[in-house]
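Escalation from tier 1.

The customer reports that the assembly of three entities below gives different structure tokens on two consecutive runs. Tier 1 could not reproduce it. I'm attaching the input and our single run for tier 2 to review.
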Amino acid sequence: MKPLRLRRLSAQAALIPTWVIVIFAYLGTILWTIRISFTSSGILPKYDFVGFEQYERLFRSARWIISVQNLAIFGVMFIVGCLVLGFLMAVFLDQRIKGEGIFRTIFLYPYAMSFIVTGLVWAWILNPTLGIQHAMHNWGWTSFSFDWLARGDRAIYMVGFAGIWQSAGLVMAILLAGLRGIDEDIWKAARVDGIPTWRVYISIVIPMMSGMFVTAIVLLAIAVVKVYDIVVAMTGGGPGISTEVPAKFVIDYLFNRQNIALATAAASVMFVAVLVVLGPWLYRQYFRKERRAA
Amino acid sequence: MNTVTKNRALAVVASAAFGLAGMQAQAADKAEVIHWWTSGGEHAAVMEFEKAFDAQGGDWVDAAVAGGGGDAARTDGINRIIGGNPPTAMQFNTGKQFDELVSNGLLRNLDPLAKEYGWKDKINPVLLNAVSVDGHMYAVPVDIHSNTWLWYSPEVLKKAGLEPPKTWDDLLTDLAALKKDGVIPLAQAGDAWTQVLTFYNVLITQGGKDLYMKIIKDHDVDAVKSPEFLKVAETFGKLRDYVDPGMQGRQWNQAIALVIDNKAGFNFMGDWAKGEIDVNKKVPGKDVGCIPGLGHQTYWVGGDVFVFPKVKSKAEQASQALLAKVLLEPKVQLAFNEKKGAVPVLKDVSSEGMDQCAQKGLALLKSGDYVPSSDILITPDMSGSIQDLVSAYFTDKSQTPQQFVDQFAAIIGG
Amino acid sequence: MSDPIHPRGAKPRHLTPGRIGLYAFLVFAAAFFLLPFYVMVVTSFKTMPEIQQGNIFSLPSKLTLAPWVTAWAKACTGVNCEGIRVGVLNSFKIMIPSTFLSILLGAINGYALSFWRPRGGNLIFAVLLMGAFIPYQVYLYPLVRMLSMVSLYNTLPGIIVVHVIFGMPVMTLLFRNYYAAVPVDLFKAARIDGGGFWTIFTRVMLPMSGPILVVAAILQVTGIWNDFLFGLIFAGRDHLPMTVELNNIVNTTTGTKAYNVNMAATILTAMVPLIVYFVSGRWFVRGIAAGAVKG
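Tier 1 run:
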């Protein structure tokens, strides 16, 4: 055995590209973003200092408040929906299914397609005068009513629904990878002991797959915080501003509305919120447990 | 070194390095043009520019980027200007979008060219004003669009026994009659910007030119709190009763299509709606009626411009000058605008060959019945806040006109 | 092990009510997932007048292939009318190295962070995780400046670097969490055998990473292939990916929207990720970890 130090050295060396990226691309940008949020910049950065002016404006904005509320609704619905549906699909696919490849591809394909177009298709399907409601009326069920996308108080749920459609397949793939990574012997042992399948999943498999669940949750959470395309394609933030989301706020102000100071203030708030909401959980997941002795 | 100078130093280094690289990459007379005209009619129009430019010895390198009303193209162009690899020319909307590029000294001053070709006497003064900062010209306007038209289906009106409206009260009566007949009275799109167009139509043509200018140009809060503006808010609010449940998710072209197909009575939209009418082999002004404003007929002047970023290469500067000249040649202007469904920016153009709607518009322009578009008068930031408010009000019937007025005053008052 | 190349949950059974329910669920779920795809396909074969009639579920009354031809070879983006085929080669040139490098770096990071606990490892991971939550658009301006400084702005290596940068958080997370389920004894045994950092990585860890490599490939191939914003800003005129053309075709605002061409173009551009999804199945195998310990 080589001395421990030397080996650690090659681990450090292997991480050099990562360090460069972390320091310049990530830390640098995060600091830059926070700095700009305290200025009066328009479309180009200006390095003056106006204190918390942008933040005050941000929290006076009705649109920002609605965006944050929508994010919470969308986030809960999307994460829970994707996890439940994705897990069910993964487990069912893991039962020596005929045509597994075809099912897997069908569940995953929404993820491959540009949401700018699939979002439009969902908007058609859910539009009362074009889609399901219209088809039902044509088939004689005239009292059928399904106009949630057109109602300011419910449209966000339809956005969440389309979001689940798009991303549940990815969760399925991640959890399937987890299932396939589990040692065959576990199943043999469980079978020998006569434990029912569902109990094996709940008591043994799910805890063993906690890493994959964490991966899925973090990926979904990133998607929630950044949710943008889906809203633009399906509702454009409407009716009115009822389906606006924070990332759309940032992007609108960054480019269209030419106020990068307000945009970076909103991005900084998102960043801090993530730190506060997810930080403790991530910390517990990754940093507190001394799980491994190297 | 403080941050500002440090950044400036970096910019100098970067632009020095890239100036060189840029020169090698760009052979003489090549002009890379960023724009967002990618649809059928727009494509045909921009081809006119390319043909004319190439015929005079230029070499048009097309860099079209669609999306978000030019968002993607502007993001691309602005980042390239910052990154030290600017395009030869770049499209903006007529208005304040490029002001900051001017104040940071990133755009070429076009005064010498304007003098040489006498542009200051030839271009419509509203547009000339819009492309000038402190009296210096920084952009070449290429077209005039009016965003405030009311389109209607003569057939639907006839069937219901109605006359085309002349006033806002006429319109509200017609809408109520159509609603009773079970026809979609007002085909409105769900996108917020289309609702903003409808709002400005009410403000300008019911409230009048002066009210519009007082509020949008002078940011006069008292004008917002006036009874006239409350009336505008009420009328705009009444329109909420005449849209159908299919509004949400409908795009502007689907909305005008309802009027074209005689499924709906009215639609508020800019003059690019003519593209859709043409595609359906119908004639604007005949098969689909056009009204340039109920009450006060007013032309709302907006449009597109090209800016020319500062470049180092002499050859590229020469192609900028050539391109600018070509864009404003009367023949090119006519050919381009005919296909674009817009009006040329030059003052002395004949209306021959234009459709009825364009002629109505041109007549208003010549008689001075026009206002600059809100893009020319207010920053994109304030436009955005107005858009949020207008679309929230329009889609939520529980909001009262008075609430709308109060919130509007808060935005205008800053 | 009885049959290592086949998946297995519970013990194999024959056609029982449970199995019928299983297939019923899968078929029902598949139908739900396919509904929008059905609308896209029928729309792509319709003529524009028929689309404007507004019955989105009906089959095309007169089948037309024209939208597909247009999307591939004729659709106009500005003054160029060559469809989406122009950018396909560029998209491959960007996607292949970017996918390979970002997965490789992610795997190395995940492996190093899980087993070697290098100094500052926690900091790296924390920053990456947090950075992943900021909208990409915020990064544009600083990145343009940084890449300009090192002469990578508007070059092919530049766009690849950008994809590697933005792939890093998720790739690192993915591999770190996957390796967390690997028995630590495996690693210890390899070290007792005298394995160094790279030997253990290439001989022990990579061979047992099949399923997670597939997931990583799914994420990166899809993300990079469908990327529009970075390609537009960082790739430069000579390397514009196909999505810029797709966007130009699909995303016009004040022109006539050719929905049939949009649908055809979208399905065409999605072919590459779809093929990757379909053929990736053979790497979704079970029980390699156990084999590695015994073998």
